[in-house]
Design goal:
Distance between the termini: 57 Å
Radius of gyration: 22 Å
Number of helices: 5
Number of strands: 5
Strand content: 15-25%
Oligomer: single chain
Shape: elongated
Structural class: alpha+beta
Largest sheet: 3 strands, antiparallel
Helix content: 40-55%
């Protein structure tokens, strides 16, 4: 028994040293996945809006000459629409599951219910309430903390919003610049 004591102590010390790194990676995977899913969902919602739909922006005051400083802008990428989307988009996280890469053991989050009803390959995807609730909580935290950045990026059509926002601007996915661009 006395021979096992130092070995067990070394093993416990090694596990204690690795545990925070594993927890940190799990948290980073979760926040990165939530950010990427959030952007995917926002972009999908924006694409569903009729491009001809507009909203009036500007001042509704009447100038001394009787005119108004009102302009019409596309509704889909308006601040009003984006703010409305940010208030409810994280509810969509219940439509996601967790997938673990067998070689790297990194977690990613994928839709388990398609937007258009097509059958999806769900092999290796863990679907459970804890995953959905963790993802929703992370999504809400990101939406709240980075609301201005999300509106800034999404108010204009831009390429690679997921990478630009989740990796470069926020560092939520700084480990994941190699993640493939998945399609909804």
């Amino acid at each position: 028994m006395s021979g096992r004591g130092p070995a067990a102590l070394c093993l416990a010390a090694a596990l204690a040293a690795l545990l925070p790194a594993a927890c940190a990676r799990r948290g980073q995977d979760l926040h990165c996945g939530a950010c990427r899913a959030l952007v995917d969902e926002l972009e999908w919602e924006i694409a569903q809006v009729d491009p001809r739909k507009t909203i009036q922006m500007g001042s509704f005051r009447i100038n001394p000459d009787g005119s108004q400083s009102v302009v019409e802008v596309p509704y889909a990428r308006s601040e009003a629409h984006l703010t409305e989307l940010l208030e409810r988009v994280c509810e969509k996280m219940k439509e996601y599951g967790e997938k673990v890469d067998p070689s790297t053991h990194r977690k990613s989050y994928v839709r388990v219910i398609s937007h258009d009803g097509t059958k999806m390959d769900l092999s290796g995807v863990k679907i459970d309430g804890d995953v959905a609730s963790s993802l929703k909580f992370a999504c809400e935290s990101i939406a709240e903390e980075y609301e201005d950045e999300l509106i800034e990026f999404l108010s204009h059509e831009a390429n690679n919003v997921k990478d630009r926002l989740c990796s470069k601007r926020t560092d939520l996915c700084d480990h994941a610049l190699h993640i493939p661009h998945d399609e909804l």
